[in-house]
Amino acid sequence: MQHHQPPPDQAMADHPRTYSDPELRAYAEEHAEDILDSVVHYMPLILPAMAALLIFMLAFIAVVMA
Fold this sequence. Notes:
The chain is mainly alpha-helical. 70% of the residues lie in helices and 0% in strands. The protein has one domain.
């Protein structure tokens, strides 16, 4: 039995902007958003907070083990 479909990378290379479902195309054009761009704005707050939490947890573990 032979496959008639091209591999996924070749199939997408031929028509990278076409959608078989028009509703999917409308959704992709309206709501497409880069996830990284939405998270980058929170990094100056989240990274120091997570670092402080990590230091607190490590100190707590050291006190409990002592």
